Task: structure prediction
Amino acid sequence: MPGYQTQMHQLTFGQRTYAIRALADKQQFADPDLTAADAGISSAQWSLFGQVWPAGQLLAEAMASRDIGGKRILELGCGLGLASLVLRMRGADIVASDHHPLAEVFLAYNAALNAIDSVPYRQLDWETGPRDMGRFDLIIASDVLYESRHAAMVAALIPPLAKPACEIVISDPGRGGANTLSRLLADFGFSLVAGDRQPAQQRAKAPRLFVYRRGMDD
Result:
């Protein structure tokens, strides 16, 4: 027994329906080897990676039709990796990344469940930053701004990961960090071309896509 319970979802993105194994609910927790504790993941946070969140579904739907030709793509904080699975199914050059010790396990399981080629995965600690990952044409993420410090952490990841011409797509449910991220990314030459800044006190709601570009024609 893995120490946690799961459930299956049938989710449709584009023209395809995917079978996705997720955690049964947000009460699940299992860390027998203290791997999560060593990574700074508390019992309250442990199950968040394994849920099907609206922001993740919005990003996956967007990636079902996004132009991927010739692009190297990175998903930050992939969780279950819905967007990465959709992109891999389309033949994209996609790398998924997360810090949770079970993210890679669930990603591999769901890829196999849907007869998708395995998705390249990298463990990425936002505190220490990326190492030897190369640079990307497109960087995507969903619901990664749920703590006040996350906007600064995400922005700090960008310089070593983004090619001079790069697009960033963030799906965010309005937790208040998008406006901060927009300001920080502007320091690295990224312009907000879709989505809008939100009042800091705005409560979570239906997610929206925020698109940033640098060195690209609109």
Notes: Residues 51-214 form a domain with the Rossmann fold fold (CATH 3.40.50.150).
